[in-house]
Amino acid sequence: MEEKQYDVIVLGGGPAGLTAGIYLARAKARALIIDTGTIGGQTVLTYEVANYPGVEMISGYQLSSTMRKQAQSFGCDIISNVSVTNMDLDNKLKSVVVNGKQKYTAKSVILATGGKSRTLNVPGEADFKGKGISYCATCDGDFFQDKEIVVVGGGNSALEEADSLTKYASKVTVLHEFDHFQALQHAVEKAKSNPKIEFIMNSHITEFSGDQKLTHLVYKDLVTGTSTEKAIDGVFIFIGYVANTQKLIDTSVKLNNRGEIITDEDLQTNIEGVYAAGDNRAVKYRQITTAVADGTVAALNALEFLNS
Fold this sequence. Notes:
The structure is a single chain. It contains six helices and 19 strands. By secondary structure, it is α/β, with parallel strands linked by helices. The strands form five sheets. It has a five-stranded parallel beta sheet with strand order 4-3-2-8-19, with helices on one face. Strands 10-17-11-12-13 form a five-stranded parallel beta sheet, covered by helices on one side. Helix 1 packs parallel to helix 2 (about 60-75). The two termini are about 30 Å apart.
C-alpha cells in the first residue's frame, strides 16, 4: 500500500477543516485535508451568508471556495470525494486509509467531519427523497418555480431558507411542531413579513405519499390531535443536523449519547494528539463562525502538540 506522511491530517473540508488547514499550512506544517464529499461541507448548501464578519453578503459556495483557495495557497494538500476505509488514531503515528489503497500518516489528526441533515424518519420520507423532498434550498429551489411547497422547521435555517425559496415558489408554508420559533428575532420578522409565507404551528408530519413523485403529506395537529392531508408540490426539511461520526464508532474516540465528539477546552479528544472541530463536537451553537473558531483553536493546539 502506498504511504505518504504529513504532520497533521484534517478529516473534513468544511469551514472548521479549511480554517485548520489554513493555519497549519501557514505555519509551515505539512497538512492534508481529506473529505469524503464536496469541499465546503454544509456551507456549500447555504444560499446566502449575511452574518460572516467582514463580508456583507456572499453565497456559501463562494465563501467555501475562497477558504479552499487560501488553504491551498499556503501549501495545504486537499483531496475530496474519497472513501475513508480504515483509521488508526490510537498509535503515536496516526493513519488514515483512503479508497482501500492509499495510506496517509501523521502525528496529529483534527476531526472536522461536520454534520448532516436530520430527517423526520416518517413513512414515505425515504421513498420521496429527491422526488419532491429536499434538504437543500440552494440545490433544489429552482425545481419548484411557481409551485407550492412546505418548509419544515422553526430554527434560523428553516425561516431563512423559507424566505429564500419564495424567489421560486408561489407559496411557502412553514410547518413547525411548536407554538414558537427557535430562530433569531430578525429571521422570524423577515419570514412573517413575507406575503408568500404562511404558517402551520403545533403540528408535525406523519406521512408522505405520491406516485412517481411526492404529491401529498399528512400532518397532525398536536393540540387537537386532528390529522390533515395536504396536497403539495415539494417539501424542504430543516430540523437540524446530526454529527458525522459514524466512522468513529469503531475507534477509541469518546462520543456522547448523541454521537457527538467530547473534547476539552483545547478541543483535544480523549486521545492525545487527536482534536475535534466544528459541528461534530458536543456544542450548543453551530454556526460558520463557531466552526471557523474551532478550526483555529484545534490547529494551534495541534501545532503546539507537534512542537512539544
